[in-house]
Amino acid sequence: MSVAQVFEKLEQNFNADAAAGLDLVFQFDIEDDKTYHLVINDGTCNLAEGAHDDPSVTLIMNSETLQGIVSGETDGMQAFMAGQLRAEGDMMLATKLGELFTMG
Asked: What whole-number distance in Å separates Cα of residue 22 and Cα of residue 15?
C-alpha cells in the first residue's frame, strides 16, 4: 500500500463524533515519502499533501512505521519509545489519533 493510500484509508476511517468541537492539524512528515497534513475541524477531516503553516503536532516517521500504525500492527506509543516515531508540537495530541481514526 502506498503512503497516499494509507492516508486515504485513514480519512475513510475518520470518527466525526470524536472530532466534534476540535480544531487541530496533524502533520505527517514521512521521511522516505512526502509530507501530508490532516485538518480536523468540528467533525470534519480534510487531507492535503504538503506542509501546513501552523500544525498542532507534527509526527515524523518512515512509511513502514506509518503503515504499521494505521494497520494496527504497530502500537504508536511503542514506535515512539523505540525511536521510530518522533513528535514536534503538542505531543499529547498524538494520543488522540486513536480516538479520531479507527486503526486496523
From this structure: 12
**pTM, rounded to two decimals:** 0.92
Residue with cell 492516508: 7
At residue 60's C-alpha, the angle toward residues 41 and 7, to 5°, is 50
Q: State the CB neighbour count (10 A cutoff) for residue 9.
A: 16
How many residues are there in the chain?
104
Helices (H), 1-104: 3-12, 63-71, 76-81, 97-100
Angle between helices 63-71 and 3-12 (to 10 degrees): 30
For 38-87, write each residue's pLDDT tens digit.
Answer: 999 999 999 999 999 999 999 999 999 999 998 889 998 899 999 999 99
What ranges make up the beta strands (E) of 8-68? 23-30, 35-41, 44-49, 57-61
CB-CB neighbours of 48 under 10 Å:
14
